[in-house]
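Meet the record:
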Amino acid sequence: MQVALTGASGFTGRFVTEALKTVGVECIPIEADLTDADAVEQVIANTDFDRVIHLAARAFVGVADWQAFYRVNQIGTFTLLDAVARKKPGARVVLASSAQVYGPGAEGLVTEDALINPANHYAVSKRAMELGAALWRDRLDLVITRPFNYTGNGQGTDYLIPKLVDHFRRRENVVELGNTWVKRDFGDVRSVAQAYAGLIVAEQPPQIVNICTGVVNSIEDILRMLSQLSRHTIDVRINPAYVRNNDVPFLGGNVKRLRDALPNWQPRTLEDTLAWMYNHEHESIR
């Protein structure tokens, strides 16, 4: 089997490339500007593949350029799906959406059937992608994934956990944070990559599925784990600019649907992830 992969050179894509090898699949990187319909059409037409994993997206843009979320995440995905449907009708396409579509009102271990309430342009663009992608279900075998927070080597320090790992590795004395008591589902990019690889080859994957661990930890838990790893203590100072009012105390993903689809899949523990990150040189890929 040959699987075309968009976003292959990104943080997650590198690990998905390796995970596909472990399930005996050849990875075919797809590098095209999703906002250029002609370029997407040409690349798809000239590429041999059986199925597609679509990771390429915009996660960060300038405040004034919020339109980029929709150009890439929504319209770009539709452009890709349309080209794939003509080149390979009936092909499976695994789409990376986001758990952010559940919105700020989500709480507990969220199931795929929970209320959808996206509250920022990134989340809205992903939800719009989900809704629009359904118009290709008559021509493609679509699997929509909703990953929760995940991290690993190569993720930039503008993300929380890489920031904390970097502070401990440099043995900083102080770190500024917001609400350290909130509990969240923190996955490992290697486990996420294995989930994508599993879903692309599974016999009957679900149409919509969370990628998560089903376990939550607080920022205080992470600080404690890193302190034990490094044998170093950092003074935490609460920066009011980082504090979110009315923050949900407990939020994670319900992992049952993913486990049912991939019985042999097992997420790594947060302790394992932090040790991996702390003990390896940090390489930031944006």
The CA atoms of residues 30 and 277 lie 28 Å apart.
